[in-house]
Amino acid sequence: MTIKRFKKILRNLHLNDNAHIPDKTSEDYDKLYKIRPLLDLINQASQKNAKDSSSQSIDESMILFKGRSSMKQYMPLKPIKRGYKVWCRCDSKTGYLYEFYIYTGKSETGTEEGLGSKVVKKLTEKLINKALEEYHIIVTFDNFFCEYTLMQYLYENCIYATGTVRRHRTHLPVLVKTKQKLAKGQYKWRVKGNVSFLVWQDTKEVLLLSNAFHPKVGKTTVLRTQKDGTKQEISCPLAIKEYTKRMGGVDRFDRIKGTYSVGRRSRRWWVRIFFFLLDASITNAYLLYCQNTNATKLSHLEFRVSVARGLFRLMPKTNNKATNSSR
User: Fold this and answer.
1) 260-261-267 Cα angle (round to 5)
2) Which of 13, 116, 131, 159 has its CA 20 to 30 A from that of 89?
3) How would you classify the pairing of strands 138-141 and 55-64?
4) What is the spatial distance between Cα 208 and Cα 171, in angstroms, rounded to a whole number?
């Protein structure tokens, strides 16, 4: 394919019917209407082609975009500071992306209180029936999402969860209001209903909520590097060790996806999202391929090359002279 042909295809690429543009003034206006068919298709395919694991994590991912868009977010502490925010639910071990949706900005009805809780409820909605019928599912997330009422809601729907929590959240015990003077490795805990609260002293205080692990059960240790370079074991509750082990699913997905990204610059706001969906599809396909013990072991790059060659074979054969004359 020549560069002119590639640019022409990219210039005329569309993912929805532009003849029926929705009314922006209507209450049901979808800001993502230009890519909605592909968004729904990839979400359905991701859930259909993989069985939900018993350990999953929820976090945010970013799609780089520096153009003009009402959906663009600014995250100064992230590696990608400007772009679209994507809420993701991934497998904790492999990074497989089960479900995602793109944040389109604040609703015009008023302030968005409890945004993190809404995100978790939406991403775990399809897990409720599976958790009831098949097996226990443990979901982990960070302090942006975590609060007591969310933990209680998940427990009532047979979904176990663990997450760090911010000090100012409501329904937390009194001991969180003042900073505890604890030696390294010490911790205090309280239980309310089906949710336990932990404050553990590491280099800094760690605040955690869990409906999966009781603070009395499973005390363990973790290694910490001292100033002289030696390793020292310190006491640690099982809930915090399990949280650390299970939390990195979305970061793992981002790392694999970003290795050989197909993203390109574009002034059109939705093209960057299209490239993200393409990368996410290839990444999920690669992770499923790696789980196949009978398949030949390929690196990520080799897998992408084999996918491209496979697509070339599927292309219909055309007369070269006719093709060249049409160009």
Assistant:
1) 155
2) 13
3) parallel
4) 13
pLDDT in tens, 43-82: 999 999 998 888 999 999 999 999 888 899 998 888 889 9
Place of tokens 């013990």: 293
| 200: three-class secondary structure by DSSP | strand
- Phi, psi dihedral angles at 294 (to 5 degrees): -85, -10
CA distance 161 to 194: 11
List of E strands, 158-277: 160-164, 187-192, 195-201, 205-210, 220-225, 231-236
- Report the C-alpha dihedral over residues 30, 36, 41, 42, rounded to 10 degrees: -100
Q: CA nearest 44: which of 98, 107, 81?
A: 98
In the chain, the N- to C-terminal Cα span, in Å, equals 11
- Rounded to whole angstroms, the Cα distance separating 169 from 147 reads 6
Structure tokens that stand for 24 in this block: 């922006």
